[in-house]
Write a structure and sequence with these properties.
Blueprint lengths: L4 H13 L3 E3 L5 E2 L5 E2 L1 E3 L8 H19 L4 E5 L2 H13 L3 E4 L12 E2 L7 E9 L3 H12 L3 E10 L3 H9 L4 E6 H10 L5 H12 L1 H8 L1
Length: 216
């Protein structure tokens, strides 16, 4: 069973409403990489809105059960996937662990935090898939610790082809509660953007690097 079109649309509606996703095709954002982008996504904002937080927690929990069946635990990716992962684990009555961006340089030097002793498999929770590299680093860390990763669920994906290819290469199934095309359609329908701006945003998703270079 996959997520319904209506469910994906509702998640997109929420993300736009609380400004977790902001669209500025005429005044691009600058990402940490230095690349110019007409979109900025900060899904941590969902945590500040109880109705949105509850809907996303329930959606994510249902997706874990529907797509991956019985699992031993939930693993969040630091930092954006920690809170949502803990909420999903609570909803499902499962153990929770989280994966740091790298091993600590002090103490026990942990890369993964929590009790791994009873876990043979997990589903990974992430807030956003961009290139997919940070998500897959977490997947690698879990596999190196001897834990099977049944798959990964994120709130939103830009849908970049290189991220899709990276997950395929890593043999890691992933699912997202909503995606870039769904969000764009919802943004246009609700008047956040004009049809002309939607066309520009479609072009960005086709070749983000070229789009960014044209803004310089």
């Amino acid at each position: 069973m996959t997520l319904s079109v209506e469910s994906k649309r509702k998640v997109a509606e929420f993300l736009l409403r609380i400004k977790a996703i902001q669209l500025r095709p005429n005044e691009p954002f600058t990402w940490a990489s230095g690349r110019k982008s007409p979109i900025y996504c900060d899904n941590r904002k969902t945590l500040s809105h109880p109705t949105v937080r509850t809907f996303i927690r329930q959606m994510c929990s249902e997706e874990v059960e529907n797509r991956f069946g019985k699992v031993d635990g939930i693993a969040g990716v630091a930092t954006g996937g920690i809170a949502l992962g803990a909420l999903v684990a609570q909803e499902l009555g499962l153990p929770f662990i989280y994966v740091r961006s790298g091993a600590k340089a002090h103490g026990m030097g942990n890369h993964i935090e929590g009790d791994l002793s009873a876990l043979s498999n997990v589903v990974v929770i992430e807030d956003l898939i961009s290139t997919g590299q940070s998500s897959l680093k977490a997947v690698d860390a879990l596999r190196e610790a001897g834990i099977e990763v049944k798959g990964l669920i994120a709130i939103f994906t830009y849908g970049f082809s290189d991220s899709v290819q990276a997950f395929e290469k890593a043999n890691c199934t992933f699912s997202t509660l909503t995606d870039y095309p769904t969000m764009l359609n919802q943004a246009a329908a609700e008047g956040y953007i004009t049809q002309g701006q939607k066309t520009a945003l479609d072009k960005w998703s086709e070749d983000p690097v070229a789009w960014s270079d044209q803004q310089s």
